[in-house]
Design a protein that fits this description.
Arc Repressor Mutant, subunit A, Multidrug-efflux Transporter 1 Regulator Bmrr, Chain A, 290 residues, AraC family transcriptional regulator, 3 domains, eight-stranded antiparallel sheet, HTH_AraC, 10 helices
């Protein structure tokens, strides 16, 4: 069997396990059960997983659960104790320790004072000039993507599948950039119907087969907001961009999808050090939407 055949088999196993992890994060995840899904012994499966994903299975589960918990803290008024229990922590104390270690402050304080609060629009005149927004003219960009339907907080599932597929098919290149495309407004579309794409950039588009798809990010003018901090805070940044920056900018929106460019990875840096560029497509300067 060739190395390509071997990694093609691993691709399917990686995808099955990754899907299971993301779909059952609020349940107890048993290593033996995951090994059964992968059709490998626990000993071998763990090594294959780490070789591809560059982190252990336990690290993945802990990171994803805390990411979902941060989203609950920002976007809901659930009691912190209930959030801890939902994401697998036996008590509030253990959740607080884990969350503080990852996010730099206890969960209750994060809800009140986390970096998402900087984007509050109650005082728009004071905040309009506070954040790093630049106007850039970007060329069209070829992308390889895997589609995702559901909460934008869950697009990591599609990125896991994307990188597993790229590695197994020999398509991964070091210069690829991570791009997220978001087609729907989460304030208008039900969460389970939100459409997005996990993507990487490519210079030349290779022949692709499912689950990979080819898309093109439109060129033109974009307002690019540089966001630092957890992905759970991104909703507040989007609202600030539309509610505070856009009215004061004198620019009009162009009918293309928004994008997120991920400058680093949650596997490599702490949540507060994550850097993301949010791209809002704009009409050419001087043009207005019809």
């Amino acid at each position: 069997m060739s190395s390509n055949d071997i990694w093609a088999a691993y691709e399917k196993r990686l995808t099955r396990v990754s899907d299971y992890i993301h779909d059952h994060l609020d349940e107890e995840l048993d290593l033996n059960r995951l090994s059964e899904i992968a059709c490998l012994s626990a000993h071998h499966w763990h090594r294959v997983y780490r070789a591809v994903h560059k982190e252990t299975l336990a690290m993945t589960v802990r990171r994803l659960r805390l990411h979902r918990a941060a989203g609950d803290l920002v976007r809901s008024d659930r009691p912190v104790r209930d959030i801890a229990a939902r994401w697998g922590y036996p008590n509030l104390q253990s959740f607080t320790r884990a969350f503080s270690a990852a996010y730099g402050m206890p969960p209750a304080r994060y809800r009140r004072e986390g970096p998402h609060r900087a984007y509050a629009t109650e005082n728009q005149e004071e905040t309009t000039g506070m954040f790093d927004v630049t106007i850039r003219t970007l060329p069209p960009q070829n992308l390889l993507c895997i589609p995702h339907t559901g909460s934008y907080m869950g697009i990591g599932k599609a990125f896991e599948a994307l990188y597993g597929t790229l590695y197994s098919r020999g398509l991964f290149r070091p210069g690829m950039r991570m791009i997220g495309l978001y087609l729907d407004d989460p304030d208008l579309v039900a969460e389970d119907k939100l459409r997005s794409f996990a993507c990487v950039t490519v210079d030349a588009v290779p022949a692709v087969a499912p689950p990979l798809e080819q898309r093109t990010l439109s060129g033109g003018d974009y307002a690019v907001l540089r966001h630092q901090g957890p992905y759970a805070n991104m909703g507040a940044a989007y609202r600030w961009l539309f509610e505070a920056w856009l009215p004061a900018s004198g620019r009009s929106i162009r009918d293309e999808v928004m994008f997120e460019h991920y400058l680093n990875s949650p596997r490599d840096v702490a949540p507060e050090a994550l850097l993301t560029e949010i791209g809002l497509p704009l009409q050419p300067d001087g043009d207005t939407a019809s």
